Structure formats: structure tokens, C-alpha cells
Amino acid sequence: MATLKDVARTAGVSVASVSRVLSNQPQVSDALREKVLAAAAHHSFRPNAVGRALRGTGTRTIGLVVSDLLNPFFTELARAVEDAAREAGYLMIVGNADERPEQQDLYVRTLLERQVDGLIVVPTVETSPLLREAADLEQHLVLLDRPASEVHAPLVSSDTSDAVSQLVDYLVTTGRQNIGVLAGPQYAGTAHQRLEAVREALARHGLDLPAERVWVGDYKRDSGRAQTRRMLDERTTPEALLVSNGRMALGVLDTLSHAPVEGSPLPGDLALAAIDDLDVFTLLRPSVTAIAQPTRELGRRAFGLLLDRIAGKPVESVRIPCTLHLRESTEPRRV
Amino acid sequence: MATLKDVARTAGVSVASVSRVLSNQPQVSDALREKVLAAAAHHSFRPNAVGRALRGTGTRTIGLVVSDLLNPFFTELARAVEDAAREAGYLMIVGNADERPEQQDLYVRTLLERQVDGLIVVPTVETSPLLREAADLEQHLVLLDRPASEVHAPLVSSDTSDAVSQLVDYLVTTGRQNIGVLAGPQYAGTAHQRLEAVREALARHGLDLPAERVWVGDYKRDSGRAQTRRMLDERTTPEALLVSNGRMALGVLDTLSHAPVEGSPLPGDLALAAIDDLDVFTLLRPSVTAIAQPTRELGRRAFGLLLDRIAGKPVESVRIPCTLHLRESTEPRRV
DNA sequence: CTGAAAGCGCTTACAG
DNA sequence: CTGAAAGCGCTTACAG
């Protein structure tokens, strides 16, 4: 590949002049500009961003590390961050931690070494010494979706409590008091919050959430299947089940539709709702009630905060409320 | 951030020695190694990959530009490439062209400027001067999933013809001769191939595929909805419809399930099959027959070819066959 | 085994 | 308006 030097030689000018022309600096004569542009075109010159970055003007690159890129929620989140980044002239590099702390740290380390101008992380686990260190070393860091303890960085997350509260109100007032939860994994900061939101909403009706009505999965589809089998085996099926994320809900549905008893128990016997709204929920029969997260808004705000941090402005954590979509899967019994 | 120079100063040695220790070169004394490691730890030293890359040892980064990252097929494809890259010690940067040629070129240009060691592209359109130029300038380029004309680069793609042939055989021998196709957009190289595969399979049975039984969408869900409405309005519904990708099939299902006539026409009246197998197809009722692409294999092979190119080995294009999954949506009429 | 020095491709004060 | 020169952080022949 041709370099500035090559272009300078064919144009018969200095590399400094070539650099000025190609970076659109105003103080250059038209004659010089013309010579340089012709030479650049002749060489199919493409600037080397590595050289430029080393000089210290930043890399115009941000990193995004998500906990699981195959999860459609994170795919859409990544997409929102990417759109915002591209509009602002930044390139986004995504790393997929796949819910593995070592892999998360591998990406964080790699991205820092590549001198990204800032980093957005959906923490896989609640605690990471590397993230803590990065924040303390004044790296530009923004947390997204999930909190991470002792990491001094702003967090952009969704607030499920209002929507959960509306959902619980609806279930209880239509006769379902015996409500169970398929919660997310301990290590994910969101799992705990969502569980608490249900507990508080129930408490407002004077109801409690005993341990035998809480199952725990890992946010993947298979755990939805496994926990549902356990629930059916234990004959402890509640009247309504609130599933902490979308993919587990698919697993639940899959197992219910293959349950030993002919026919699906929905919605007659078991009302079902998910936190996290998937495209397909409207296609299934019964369609699935869900709490939709403000996904694109989350991504957009996270990038906004990061830009502010890079620009040295003060930033604060942000919480954005979710929306409840009532569908067939929570309709009251017909009796 | 601390640099090699800082570490050298505190260790009381030269930067060359620090570099040698930190890159695990063998010819260093234990005493020196110890001093350097201590100093590096003291500074929380993190090597600057930009400095290293400029020196000319490559960036250990590859770029992947996909035509639409929100399409689960490409998400999984990206994931497969990422896994292969990570295992080989490479970082992958994804760019999402969103089916827009200018955006594809933006990413290709940006990635080349950042000195990626190689580039894998799912071409949004059949032709791109920039891609052609990149290939001709000896950049390491591999095309994935879709061909691009006049671009001198190897292609890794899936071969649907066998699976389509099996599917058509099944439909015809079980009494469905009037077969229609919802094809993909002209600009995608795969769309044409898939349509031809159906045409050839039908020809083997002495059947043809007239223009009035071919609808054209853009691989997105909404176009599945729109074309289905057209089909219903025109009262030209065939006995079986083969949809060229998964998301359009979801749109078709959505519209059929809301069709004016009560009840879904599946599978009694209209057999449905998709090219591209989505997770949810097994959850829907009827479950949806699909031709599954060897997604992970495609991603893995593409990265393999790229590594070979980078290593200077000769590489050839690869085609990998698809697999047919017969499900309820193509079951013969019960009559 | 270790160090001094050159150089990767760029940008930007500093002169003129 | 233009050029010569320094320097970003690293690696690697070249000496010793």
C-alpha cells in the first residue's frame, strides 16, 4: 500500500503538505491541493489509521463487550450502539463474552490495548477486577444493562419495576394469586432486580413469594426447558409464571407444548409472561405477554454517555422504564 | 497509561529489554526478567497495540462485514467467525451494512484503513468497485454466503440445490404440483441461486415455475407480510410456498394467521417451507419445514480460508450442502 | 545476554 | 503557504 511518502514523492511536495491536503486543512494553495489529490488518486492512497492513531489523535473507535451476542436482546442493543457510533464517526468493535468472565476480560484487555477511545460493557458477572481497574485508571467506561459492584462507572439500564407492578396487578385482580418466577442466574445483576420487583409488587397485594415458587435458570433456552420439567415433575405449577428473559420463555413454551398431558396448559391453567419481548411472541398461539425493554434507547443513551465522558463532561447513571404488552398467554380462565 | 519507556526507567534497563521480556523472547536472563516484570506490574503496564502494529507485525485483527446483523442467520455466522478468530488469537471487528451498499463500502474502507490483516465480506450487492479494488490490490479478502461479480476473491457459500431438490420431490410425490416461490431481492446473489434450484427441481418432474407463482421480497419480515397479502388478494395461492429466507417466512405466517378467513390455511391448504432454519420454527404450530444452512461451518471455513490467504497459501472457493428438516407445515392434506 | 538506534506512517508545532 | 524535523510506542537487526 502506498504511504504519504509515496504520494509526496510523486507530487513533488513534502509529506506535511500531503497530510494537510488530505486532512482538509484550510491553509493550502489550490495548486498544491490539486497536485496532491492527483498523486493520491494515482496511488489509490488509503490513509493508515494506525499511523494516525499513534500520533495521538485518538482512534475514533469504541469497544462494546456484551455478555451474549446470540441473545436477540443484545444483538439489537449492539445494533443501536453501532448506529449511534457510526453517526458520530466512530467505529464500534464488539466482543462477545458468551457469559464467560474470562472471555469478557480477554475482550476488555484486548480492546484497551488497541487504544479504543471508550468502552461500553454489559458485565457478565457482578464483579471484575479488570473492569474496576480500568475505571480507576480513568479509562472511559460505561456499563450497560447490568450493574457491576465497585466499578466506578455510570450505568445505563432499564427499569422493570413499573411494568412488573402493572403485570402483577393485572394477574392478581383477575384471580391469579399463586404466582411463580423463573429467575435469571445469580451472577447477572439484572436477575436479582427483576426478582425483587416481583416480590415488591406482590407484597403490595399482601402476597409473598416463597422459595418453592422460584426457579432459577441461566437466561438460555435450555434452562427454561429444564426448570419447566422440574416444575411439572414436582407438581408445583403456579397459576402464573413470570419468566425473567425471553429465551428461557421459549424453552418453557417448548416443554409445555410437549408436556405428557395432551394439549398445552396455556392460558387456561398457567398464565405466562416474559421480561424481554421477542419478535416471535406475537406469532405463537397463545401469543405471549411480555415486558419490552427500551432496547434501542438503552444503546443510544450508553453511547451518548460515553461520548460525554470522552469529551470530559460529567455523566450520571440513567434508568429507562419498560413497557408491558398484555397478550393471550395471560388471559384469565374462561370458567 | 504507562509505556515501555516508563517501565524501562523504573526497572533500570533499556526499552529493548522490556520489550523482549514482555514478548516472551527466550534470550533474557532471569534477573532481568524479574526486574522488568516487577516494574511492569507496578505500572499496571498494558502494551499499546497501536505502537506494535505500526512496527509492522500485523494487527492480528480481521474485519467482517455482513449485510444485515439483525438477521439471526448472520448473527450466528458472525459468532462462528468470531469463535474461530478468537481461537487463533485474532480480534474480529464486525460492520453491519444493513443491506446498504454505501454503508458496506464505509465499513470496508474503514477496516482497510485500520490495517486489518484480512477481511471477510457478505456482499450486500452483486457488485462493488471498492471490493474489486481491494481484491486487486492484494488485500486478503474472502467472500461469504453471497457471490460478488468481478471480485477476485474466494467464496464460501452454502449449496441449497440438493435440499431443495429433496423438498420438491417430497411435495410433488405427495400431491403438491402447484408450487410457488417467495424469492429474495435481485441484488442478493443467493436469491437467484435459490430460485434456480427450485426451477431445476421442478423441471425434473416436468413442471414449470411461471412468473405468476413467483413473488419477490427483500429478505425482511415485512416483505413476507406484504407479498402474502398480495397472494391472498390475487387469489393465486399455490398448493405449496417455498420462502427464500427465514424472516420472510415469519411474515408469511403472521399474515396467514390473521387472514380474513377464520383459521390458518396451514397445512391443509398451503404447504409452507423456508430456506434458512429459525429456532422458533419448531415452536410454531404447525412447526415449519425448513432447509438449514451449515451456518457455523460456513463461518469457520471462511476464517480458515482467510488465515490461509494471510499465510500466503493458495485457496479455493468452498460450497457446503444444506440439510432439509421436514416438519408439520408440509404434511400432505388429510383428505 | 543487553543496549543504542533506526524506523513503521502519520501529525503538528516551529521556522521561514 | 510550505518544508524540515520531532515524536507517538513499539520491535528488531546490529553491535558489543
Q: How would you describe this structure to a colleague?
A:
Two copies of one chain form a homodimer. The first copy, chain A, is α/β, with parallel strands linked by helices. The first copy, chain A, has three domains: 4-47, lambda repressor-like DNA-binding domains (434 Repressor (Amino-terminal Domain)); 61-157 and 295-320, 3-Layer(aba) Sandwich (Rossmann fold); 159-293 and 325-330, 3-Layer(aba) Sandwich (Rossmann fold). Chain A is 43% helix and 16% strand. Chain A has twelve helices and twelve strands. Chain A has helices at residues 4-11, 15-22, 30-42, 49-57, 72-87, 101-113, 129-136, 161-173, 189-203, 221-233, 246-257, 295-310, and strands at residues 61-66, 91-96, 118-121, 141-144, 155-159, 179-183, 214-216, 240-243, 271-275, 289-292, 318-321, 323-325. In chain A, strand 8 (240-243), helix 11 and strand 9 (271-275) form a beta-alpha-beta unit. In chain A, helix 1 packs across helix 2 and helix 2 (15-22) crosses helix 3 (30-42). The longest helix of chain A is centred in the first third of the chain and has 16 residues, at 72-87. The mean pLDDT of chain A is 90. At the A-B interface, helix 4, helix 5, strand 2, helix 6 and helix 11 of A face helix 4, helix 5, strand 2, helix 6 and helix 11 of B. The structure holds a DNA duplex (16 and 16 nucleotides).
